[in-house]
Write a structure and sequence with these properties.
Chains A, B: Its cofactor is pyridoxal 5'-phosphate. Chains A, B: GO terms for molecular function: lyase activity. Chains A, B: Keywords: Lyase, Pyridoxal phosphate. Chains A, B: Pfam families: Beta_elim_lyase. The structure is a homodimer of 364-residue chains. With 364 residues, chain A is of the alpha/beta class. Chain A has 2 domains: 125 residues, Aspartate Aminotransferase, domain 1 (Alpha-Beta Complex); 199 residues, Type I PLP-dependent aspartate aminotransferase-like (Major domain) (Aspartate Aminotransferase, domain 2, 3-Layer(aba) Sandwich), CATH 3.40.640.10. Chain A has 16 helices and 13 strands. In chain A, the strands form 3 sheets. In chain A, strands 2-8-7-6-5-3-4 form a 7-stranded mixed β-sheet, with helices on both faces. In chain A, a hairpin with a 5-residue loop joins strand 12 and strand 13. In chain A, helix 1 runs parallel beside helix 14, helix 2 packs across helix 12 and helix 14 runs antiparallel to helix 16. The radius of gyration of chain A is 21 Å and the shape is globular. The interface between A and B is large, with 51 and 51 residues.
């Protein structure tokens, strides 16, 4: 059934989510204008990696930055460094943090670092959660936006308050900024203004930026020097990371200025969903390019609806759907380049159809 | 001074070592004929990664294989799995193993695995070293060829003896086969015949094969399944590994059948070095495409000689040189495609010059 949803999405003329298909053309486009005579990086050294690291350090307002194959690796290492600094193998983060649910417990298995989960699965971490923590921790990780709850954000004042509290209480503050660029339009801040509140920052290149893979970890001189030793230990200090670096740079240049557009489009798209019978988004008004779409009906029934609407309208709504229980389900929307390429009339038509179909199938 | 050596090498018309420059053209060539519409792998799944893993499993004669970003990651994980299986966090390997000298103690820092170093820095591990080990270990790692001593090999009978002993004594045997293909012509065996002696095998794609980066870890079904969990924990389960996979496949197809040629060329080239005054290779007769060239003179003086010979002849001998003390030095030679592209007269001329220059500078 999930395959049928993917197929219906693939066959749609227009697609509401993402930048485009994750295929090899993404690499070909990134390398098309790059001189083949440019030398590879070599175990973390060389122009191609050093230039990009310098560019990202400046962009994030940090002393130094280091390119990693993945955010999983970069973030575990950041937390380990802060734990070692304090001699306290304990960190705090949200119960739906990437480290808690997507990394097979790497942090615990590889570093024996204990975790304190703060806030709960329905909301973001607030200052009060941090102040009232009973455990002593070396580091607090904040994920902006909190992806697994639709990409919600604390207020900027909350961020400032948490940052101040952590600095006053000897707690390092790390930013899971996988989607950092995507939240800047809502905060109306630059990347370096946000990063200034944090001791270390991770940024991903294959979410909103649309690269192939790879991540940047940024912070002070000493922190970054240590992170390179750990990168070697992890087997992340590859002889050549340029396939990810060149593409990260290419798509960063292409997409980093488009985040305000994606944000505006996400608000418009969420509005379309919320106009449909029995459909709601989380958050109701997006604060980045992403949100979740919830249905108080079983996954199987909603799949039928989505496939029908996509077939009728040629507008690809989504390619995946997750049950949240026996009688409800949701999907995640990430707005990228594709949304802007669709005639608005086609989008409107699709949502009129979705609304009708929901009313017919689930009359209240 | 090392820069001067690199410059002299770069400016030489011909180059005796390697396949070519490690530049972005290596990627461009690999992707030139690949359809841009081919989908990316996705967190270890999809045609591009699964097909290559199946191909490598078959080539190595193992049940399954998994693609890793690096051998460092793959091998630490292999050893961890075998240690967990036996409930004994201890492994044995050569004192100049990659894990011991190039990985910032990742195995110890990330897994708390203890190591027993067997044999010594001048020779390969023999059956007697294994039989006389006092410590109980979960796994023995053999590196074929032993790179840091010029790429030496035990006899095939020794391999068979070690394999039999390990199986009879409950010790897992892991192959550091970074350069496995390069030793097959000497052993006159297929890859799967050699791998049959081992429980798990790692193969690299950027040594003799000439790819960009990446590695295969192969073994039984259960072993490989566990390795994928650890790959996720390490942050090695990238959303897209295809830049390395496509290039690994491309260069594997291009170079895997050329290993006998590289081996023959290496023997010829070593012979040229050994014909020069005060120059010797280790091993004297290579057993793969690699060997070391030793000089009983200080590094600075040999650099002068090498730069002079390269300048006079246009033949690039080498781009690096390492001191082994105050009064001796060596460099590593890896024979690849470039050697075969040089007119033999130019090679001969270069070694006549090297011999003359050594005689003049260091009359005995």
């Amino acid at each position: 059934m999930n395959n049928a949803l993917q197929e219906a999405f693939d066959q749609s003329k227009y697609k509401l989510t993402g930048h485009g298909r994750r295929n090899i053309q993404v690499l070909k486009d990134a390398f098309e204008d790059v001189d083949g005579q440019l030398d590879s990086d070599l175990y973390g050294e060389g122009k191609v990696i050093e230039d990009f690291q310098d560019k990202m350090a400046a962009f994030l307002g940090k002393e130094r930055a280091v390119f990693f194959p993945s955010g999983t690796m970069a973030q575990q290492i950041a937390l380990r460094i802060w734990c070692d600094e304090k001699g306290l193998p304990k960190v705090a983060y949200h119960p739906l943090s990437h480290l808690e649910i997507h990394e097979e417990d790497g942090l615990k298995e590889l570093h024996n670092i204990k975790t304190t989960l703060i806030a709960d699965e329905t909301r973001v971490i607030e200052l009060e959660d941090v102040v009232s923590m009973e455990d002593s921790v070396a580091c607090l990780l904040l994920e902006l936006p909190q992806r697994e709850i639709g990409g919600q954000l604390p207020s900027y004042e909350t961020l400032e308050g948490i940052s101040k509290y952590c600095r006053n209480n000897g707690i390092r503050l790390h930013l899971d900024g996988a989607r950092l660029l995507e939240v800047l339009p809502y905060y109306e801040k630059t990347a370096s203004e946000v990063c200034e509140l944090f001791d270390s920052v991770y940024l991903s290149f294959y979410k909103g930026i649309g690269g192939i893979a790879g991540a940047i970890l940024a912070g002070g001189e000493e922190f970054v020097t240590k992170s390179k030793v750990w990168k070697r230990r992890y087997g992340g200090d590859l002889i050549s990371l340029y396939p990810y670096i060149v593409s990260a740079d290419h798509y960063f240049n292409q997409k980093s200025n488009k985040m305000p557009l994606y944000y505006e489009n996400a608000k418009e798209l969420a509005d379309f969903y919320n106009s449909c019978h029995s459909v709601s988004t989380l958050p109701k008004i997006p604060v980045s390019n992403m949100f979740h779409v919830h249905f108080p009906q079983p996954k199987e029934e909603i799949e039928t609806v989505l496939i029908e609407v996509m077939g009728k309208t040629g507008v690809g709504l989504i390619n995946h759907l997750r049950a949240t229980g026996e009688s409800s389900c949701y999907f995640e929307v990430s707005v990228g380049d594709r949304y802007g390429e669709i005639p608005i009339e086609a989008v409107k038509h699709a949502f009129i159809q979705l609304d009708e179909c929901m009313r017919n199938k689930f009359p209240s």
